[in-house]
Amino acid sequence: MQIPSKYDASQVENKWYNYWMKHNYFHSEPDEREPYTIVIPPPNVTGVLHMGHMLNNTIQDVLIRRARLLGKNACWVPGTDHASIATEAKVVAKLKEQGIDKNDLSREEFLKHAWEWTHEYGGVILEQLKKLGCSCDWERTKFTMDDDMSEAVIQVFVDLYNKGLIYRGYRMVNWDPEAKTTLSDEEVIYEEKQGQLYYLNYKIDGSDNTLTIATTRPETIFGDTAICINPNDERFTHLRGKKAIVPICNRVVPIIEDEYVDVEFGTGCLKVTPAHDENDKMLGDKHNLEVVDIFNEDASLNSYGLHYEGKDRFVVRKEIVMELEEKGFLLKTENYINKVGTSERTKAVIEPRLSDQWFLKMEELVKPAIKAVLGENPEIKLVPKKFENTYRHWMENIRDWNISRQLMWGQQIPAYYYGAGKEDFVVAENIEKALELAKQKTNNPQLTTNNLRQDKDALDTWFSSWLWPMSVFDGIRNPENDDINYYYPTNDLVTGPDILFFWVARMIIAGYKYKGEKPFNNVYLTGLVRDKQRRKMSKSLGNSPDALKLIEEYSADGVRVGLLLSSAAGNDLLFDEALCQQGKGFGNKIWNAFRLIEGWEIDKTIPQPETSKIGLEWYEAKLQKALFEIEDHFRKYRLSDALMTIYKLIMDDFSSWLLEIIKPAYQKPIDAKTHKAVIEALENNLKILHPFMPFLTEEIWQYITERTPEQALIIAKWPKAKSVNQELISEFEFASEVISGIRNIRKQKNIAFKDAVGFSVINNENIKSTFDGVIAKLGNLESIDYVTEAIEGALTFRIKANEYFIPMAGAIDVEAEIKKLTDELNYTEGFLKSVQKKLSNERFVAGAPEQVVASEKKKEADALAKIETLKASLASLDA
Fold first, then answer.
1. Shortest CA distance to 555 belongs to which of 6, 9, 62?
2. Whole-structure pTM value
């Protein structure tokens, strides 16, 4: 079979991916083998492949491919998340382009458009993962809105409601005015922003006196229903029991007293807006204050905003400040930095809003999940361990989870209302069961499904994905099926630390609630992919390369290597395309090494040279040492270090040393025994490299010899680790230094490699002669003699206590060497004179900075030492 001179990834990658798919290597069914299971962090159905996906999924593919090679039943379950907020926004935008308003559609009509959008665009990212080489079990692909997945979600909701863990409550929630839905606390990102603190004067009712409050949100004065002072603040004793008049809207509100007020902040007088601040809501409940909601769902002002009705909150802020100033209510403004909550999805500024929502009680549910990670005998390991502190903080300060969203795309909450009252509802898996419950609750057998209306809200997307490790194996609906019993708990979860609470912690909570055990053994938390300036990659910055173009330019293998070479667990990766070029270059080096081996003619009649025999024994020892190191790195999730160990083994030990040791003389054949052994060594290299560079390794593997589908590299056996001959490794390390010493002298003295040279050794280190043959071959030595005294006039170098000599007779052109050394001596003496002239100038020495003078003195000392060495070398040549 003719081997191409160049490796062309564009011709190789599709070929082998299709081959793997054709022979069903990625698919898994329960059997007698040990399972190794990974569930993919389901990317948003709206998503396309970006650098974070590339890193995350490369790591998962490395782990799953290695598990296959270790003989485990490897199962990597892929899928996508319906991403309620993001997907609904995409669909709404598409409808708007078509002149359709979402609000004019029924739920069924909108969902039809949403499903059409999903079917058209939803599989893009999974197809892109195939380009990266991801060996997912595509037959098991799941989508969080699949019928069976949705059934599981609804079943869990009903179960938790029946157990008293889900409740409906009128609470202050995080409102996203762009998506027009609530968000959980964890979906709000707090950012420090430069703002203004506005000092406003409120008149005291029945008096000409005023009090001053400080606020960052003057537009909210329309919702003020009290002014609060601290009862211990002596500055305001005259205000007790009085009332104040809110500017512009002229609402008369009570002045209340509460120790909640911070006497050090602002003026010590606090405006209370119970509908738009959580702490104000608590004050309002405590003091029985009126609640005035001034915002529409898009954060424009409603009728309470008087002449500002219909205007956006930030527009009103600018305009009301001018009005307050014109009417004498604005005392002053100050710059003020405060933390502003923004939506994790839409980036809109969050509005606190009172709303009827569904909540899940977390206090008891969270306890097993805390113990599983942080207990005395933890069952789940976070890598890196530093994230345990983050996990502890979140879990020990957890609040009830707001699980309802004001969206159509998602699982509709299974609550059915039969009356106008807040408690006139039942919860059931479907409307038929709901009807039976409603009849019982109302004692009205005449009710029909026409009397029921389902809650319009959908469930938070995370409420479906928290079941992912169970629901992908149908473990909620059929808790004792073969798949869930075999594959659960899964082995490794690979994800980013930014969803440690959103997803990872919640999966742990759900796992203990519904399976009574952990959902996975280990959580490998990758870092973020950043650019060379340490900026997070994003479309808005334009610093995120096109993932598919990278693969096209550098090959999937090259990109995988480039990503992993600098990707320590939990540490951010500073991405540089040069890393991908390095990965591509590594692949080319391996290809060329293979071509070199295959280019040798094989002669079965010649014996194996001793140099080849000992070289192969040494390489086997290096491979065994590498296997132990690789295993240790994988156990500690140091995939970058594992790859670097393999990289050095192949680049340095195999390509640079072993192939040189066994290489036959020019136009001479290689013996069959050595050829067979080096092919075995190459095959072992391919096996350990395959998880990282699957395409290149399979291509070479299949070129080596004709293979059946049962002999493909993807399902080959990982090399078995044996004992390591450390003594042989240490001896070669010393020998390699000797060879490097010989090569340096040849280079320095222009001794052509074709010219054999004599070589003598004073063996003070008592080094064995095991590698003398290798030293002689790679140094082109006439012989190696062991002597007890130094050889006069020889070229020499030292390694530890050993001294090595290359007699000069016949080895170099003496006249040419004398000329070279003389020229160098003359140049150095001239350089010395110029330095000494500068140092003899008193004005220079007195006026120049100290470090400049010190630098010149060092140049003088270096030149003097070099002149002495050059003169000694010339003297030895003249002798």
1. 9
2. 0.86
